[in-house]
Amino acid sequence: MNRRRPTLLAALTLTATAALTLSACGSDDSSGKGDGEDKIAGADTGSTTPSASPTETVPDQGERPEIALPADVTYKFEWGKTGDAVKDAVLHDAEQRIRAVDMAIAEQDPLHKAYRFYSEGEAAAGSEKYIRDFVDHKARTTGVTRYYDESVNAKDDGTAALVYCEDQSKSFNKFLKTGKTDVTPVTKDSYVLYASTLRKNNKGVWVTERLVSERGSAKCQP
Questions:
Q1: pLDDT recorded at residue 59
Q2: Helices 85-106 and 121-136 sit at what angle, rounded to 10 degrees?
Q3: Residues contacting 37, CB < 8 A, separation 6+
Q4: Which of 36, 40, 90, 187 is the most exposed, having the fewest neighbouring CB atoms within 10 Å of its CB?
Q5: Which own/partner contact pairs does 125-128 have at CB distance under 8 Å and 24+ positions apart?
Q6: How far apart are CA 32 and CA 136, in angstroms?
Q7: What is the mean pLDDT of each run of 10 residues along the chain (222 residues)?
Q8: Distances in Å between the alpha carbon of 48 and those of 61, 91, 92, 116, 198?
Q9: Do residues 153 and 161 touch, judged by C-beta distance below 8 A?
Q10: CA atoms within 13 A on the CB side of 90
Q11: pTM score, two decimals?
């Protein structure tokens, strides 16, 4: 499900949330709401719904949860359009899941409907635990997180494997009582490799079912 951080919340990476191996996924190629002072901005502007094709039906935007985040929670997704409608839909919904988890952290809601719209099973359970840890520490995320080096393998049975890297070097924990941001040094562990399996549900949404991570992966180092 998710990520972060090299210090206090380091245990929150979801390496153990699934039985999926990184090699299997990559075989084709490879903390809570602030003190009320934060300005809330729509965070859905960096991504658009991919065009539908005869083999890929995209749900109406009205069916999807609105995702809004504090203005200091931003992303740099370097996932370009592949030109394949199915793969582009997988990437779009994976991105929305990432945003939805950070929104749940910002709103201190471990059962937020938005991330559960985009995840099920082990991934959803892992996200819930991850969010609860931020709530327990009265913290949320801040800064910019970069995503890159993605690889998508979509199958005819309505499942897909997605592998990607995350750069956490400019994202940190922000503690709600003090407003203090825990700025940590950049190390090899600031870069994380993720492998996930997704399934297209009956709403046409690509939900993440399993997710594992490898912090400090050589594949993701700058």
A1: 53
A2: 30
A3: none
A4: 36
A5: 125/17, 126/1, 126/2, 126/14, 126/17, 126/18, 126/211, 127/1, 127/2, 127/14, 127/101
A6: 9
A7: 43 32 29 29 31 47 87 96 95 98 98 98 96 96 97 96 97 96 95 97 96 96 95
A8: 10, 11, 7, 20, 19
A9: yes
A10: 27
A11: 0.76
Integer Cα distance of 219 and 214 in angstroms: 10
Give the position of tokens 């394949």.
Answer: 84
Is 20 within 8 Å of 210 (Cβ atoms)?
yes
Q: Measured at the alpha carbon of residue 219, what is the angle toward residues 12 and 115, in degrees to the nearest 5?
A: 35
Return all residues near 112 (Cβ < 8 A) that are at least 6 apart: 100, 103, 104, 131
The two three-digit tokens of residue 130, written as one number = 């991850």
Contact by Cβ (8 Å): 206, 94: yes
Predicted local confidence at residue 23, as pLDDT: 29
What is the C-alpha to C-alpha distance for residues 1 and 212, in angstroms, rounded to an integer? 7
Torsion of CA 204, 206, 208, 209, to 10 degrees: 50
Quick one: how far is CA 56 from the chain centroid?
A: 22
